[in-house]
Design brief:
Layout lengths: L17 H4 L16 H11 L2 E3 L12 H8 L6 E6 L7 H12 L3 E7 L2 E8 L5 H11 L6 H13 L2 H14 L12 H30 L6 H4 L1 H20 L13 H17 L2 E3 L9 H16 L6 E5 L12 H12 L3 E6 L6 E10 L1 H6 L3 H4 L3 H5 L5 H14 L2 E7 L9 H4 L10 H33 L9 H4 L6 H18 L9 H10 L14 H18 L6 E2 L8 E2 L1 E6 L7 E6 L1 H9 L4 H4 L2 E4 L5 E4 L15 H12 L3
Parallel strand pairs: 1-2, 2-3, 5-6, 6-7
Antiparallel strand pairs: 3-4, 7-8, 8-9, 10-11, 12-13, 14-15
Helix pairs in contact: 2-4, 3-6, 5-6, 5-7, 8-10, 8-19, 11-13, 12-17, 21-23, 22-23, 22-26
Length: 663
């Protein structure tokens, strides 16, 4: 019977005696001993070391973790044998442990770890709560906890004894029956979300502070120190966010996997290549056998015939599982290219997965039509059919025989052809390391944060405008003096003047105390004279704009005195600007250079100095009924009491009282 050559590492024995290897290519293979079974091979490994870590999972469980598993195994208090293997869907864990125990012949605790955690555990000749320990690891730990932590939790439960372990297992079932434990690690997409959010907050919050502060402060004057509060708060918030984000989002890894060494990443490829140098069919000794002796004989015979055929050559068949945790990250093309480089001989490299039954074929240097191999191989051969899916061996023996027939019929070419170099697998150092927080989507987040700040400011401004409008209708509140020069219109509508005159009169009347401010009573009295003693009349039709402006000026002058800002002057450029502090020669016409000495508020003074041509546009213009409602500067309207405004509030009071016949 033919033998399948299999090795695990340089320290492991091969499954073909040295004196028979040279005969692998001769008909004498029928006299070879039977292949070593999977259980026998694993038993040999445990005989050498009670912890066997496969070389097929370097990205998830590098072999350097074996001492850690051994250290934990000692805590069980009983002889413990640990097998860390790739996850095999066709393998029954309990049966495998039974078979390994039978061949090893030693009692103790046998633990099978497949992929990411403890999959099976059985006690032989010792009392250990294996079922409870396995249950706890499956319920209490998240799926991304990793095999080492899974085994550590398993050992902890075993060490508690049967009674406590059973109680803990039942509690774990009840607690996590419906809700799984939270994941222990985040992935690259989660890190991108964190980076994006950090970018949004880092620009959104400080910029919102600046914009909202500027909006709230618009039209107001204040001390320079107060103007620095908003920029200072924005700067402090940006610094706080930049320093806090890495603390909040402190994850650096996406899994519990350790970084493998280059030797661990190449161990399996070297093992397979060493086997193929001695036998063109390599069966992974850690996996279930999928080819019987007859099928192996047949496959070797077909390989020999193809090698001797016209345009043929060597065929190397690797019966090895391809998992995402392997050195090639599950890429059969990359695995075949690595094996070809190690074998150092051109030929057809076949990768057959004993677990899922897939077959991949790659031509490296033979005179075969590579496109025919790539595109014309039937799916029933490479992927299998329903019969293959139902069979434990995936009918690999039958399908590999059909593959050899396909190779015999593959068109030959004049020159050797080879597969293009496959893309490199992800670097193990990068695969489980998260990107830096200030990278990837952090930069788009900065722009989104700026846009969000602008949007928030716009929404706040709109809501403020709506709310203020509603409040003005329900509870009239006069505007602050600092804002007036910036909000007062130069061509106000009659409705604006009615509403403002009423608000100012109501506010002045509510604040005025005749006993404390008797000397300022004349401004309120003059304003009331204009409305016939009834503030409500200001809101009703019938009053002309010049009278309404006079009411506003007098009421504001009285309110300014009550708030500690008494002034005998009102802005002569636009009386709606409120009190003025001094006079200034200003240009009052857009054409020519006509100037007039007028009281000016601070903003109008700044304009008169820095931009004299801007004063004409700031003048208050009201409709003159005598000219068909043509708007003129307020002081040029015939018979208007406002003509006295440039001379001071006192002259305006005298003008109003004189017109009413009051002395």
């Amino acid at each position: 019977m033919p033998a399948v050559f299999a090795t695990a590492t340089s320290a492991h024995a091969t499954n073909t005696p040295p004196d028979t290897r040279a005969a692998t290519a001769t008909p004498a293979r029928a006299a070879d001993p039977a292949p070593v079974t999977q259980a026998a091979y694993l038993a040999d490994r445990l005989r050498e070391n009670p912890v066997h870590v496969t070389d097929q999972l370097p990205r998830e469980v590098p072999r350097s973790t074996a001492p850690d598993f051994a250290r934990l195994a000692k805590k069980t208090g009983v002889p413990t044998y640990v097998l860390v293997l790739p996850m095999m869907s066709s393998t029954d864990g309990e049966q495998l442990l039974d078979a390994v125990h039978d061949r090893l012949g030693r009692d103790g605790l046998y633990v099978l770890i497949e992929g990411t955690g403890v999959a099976e555990a059985t006690a032989y000749g010792v009392r250990v709560p294996t079922d409870a320990a396995v249950t706890v690891t499956q319920y209490e730990l998240a799926f991304d906890a990793g095999p080492l932590l899974s085994f550590e939790r398993f050992v902890d439960v075993v060490a508690q004894g049967e009674e406590k372990a059973a109680s803990r297992a039942e509690a774990a079932r009840e607690r996590y029956r419906d809700d799984e434990p939270a994941e222990m690690y985040i992935g690259p997409s989660d890190r991108k979300n964190q980076s994006f959010l950090t970018g949004i907050v880092l620009t959104g919050v400080p910029l919102s502070i600046l914009l909202l502060a500027a909006y709230a402060r618009r039209g107001r004057t204040g001390k320079p120190a107060l103007r620095l509060i908003a920029p200072g708060a924005a700067l402090l918030s940006a610094a706080a966010i930049a320093l806090t984000a890495p603390v909040v989002f402190d994850e650096t890894r996406s899994s519990a996997a350790r970084l493998p060494t280059p030797a661990e990443m190449s161990a399996r490829v070297e093992r397979v290549a060493a086997g193929l140098k001695q036998d063109p069919v390599y069966a992974d000794p850690e996996s279930p056998r999928v080819l019987d002796a007859r099928q192996l004989d047949r496959l070797h015979e077909r390989i020999r015939d193809f090698r001797r055929s016209d345009g043929g050559g060597p065929v190397y068949v690797s019966l090895v599982p391809q998992t995402p945790e392997s050195e090639a990250a599950g890429d059969a093309d990359l695995f075949a290219a690595a094996v070809h480089a190690k074998v150092g001989e051109d030929g057809v490299y076949v990768v057959a997965d004993p677990d899922d039954g897939t077959i991949d074929v790659y031509n490296h240097g033979l005179r075969l039509d590579s496109s025919h191999l790539s595109f014309d191989l039937p799916d029933s051969l490479t992927l299998g059919d329903s019969r293959a899916d139902e069979a434990d061996d995936h009918l690999l023996g039958e399908r590999l025989d059909r593959l050899m027939t396909f190779l015999d019929k593959t068109p030959r070419t004049d020159r050797p052809q080879s597969e293009p170099a496959p893309a490199a697998a992800p670097r193990a150092a990068d695969e489980h390391t998260l990107p830096a927080l200030y990278s990837t989507d952090f930069w788009p987040g900065l722009f989104v944060g700026a846009f969000a700040a602008l949007l928030l400011t716009g929404i706040a401004a709109g809501m403020t405008w709506i709310v203020r409008g509603l409040l003005r209708r329900r509870s009239p509140v006069p505007e602050s003096f600092d804002r007036m020069p910036f909000t007062a219109p130069t061509a106000p509508s009659t409705s604006y003047l009615r509403r403002t005159a009423y608000n100012e009169l109501i506010a002045l009347s509510a604040e005025f105390d005749p006993e404390d401010h008797a000397r300022d009573r004349e401004r309120l009295d003059a304003a009331l004279l204009l409305v016939g003693g009834d503030p409500g009349r200001a809101r009703r039709p019938g009053m002309d704009p010049t009278t309404l402006v006079a009411v506003i000026v007098l009421a504001r002058a009285g309110r300014a005195a009550l708030t500690g800002r008494p002034s005998k002057l009102c802005c002569g450029v636009n009386p709606l600007h409120g009190p003025a502090e001094h006079r200034h020669h200003v240009r009052v016409t857009a054409e020519g250079n006509r100037r007039r000495l007028l009281p000016v508020c601070a903003p109008c003074h700044d304009t008169a100095v820095a931009e004299p041509d801007g004063i004409p546009d700031r003048l208050l213009k009201l409709p003159d009924p005598a000219l068909g409602n043509t708007r003129l500067p307020y002081y040029d309207i015939t018979d208007s009491p406002l003509a006295a405004v440039p001379d001071g509030v006192g002259r305006l009071v005298d003008r109003v009282r004189g017109a009413a016949g009051v002395h």
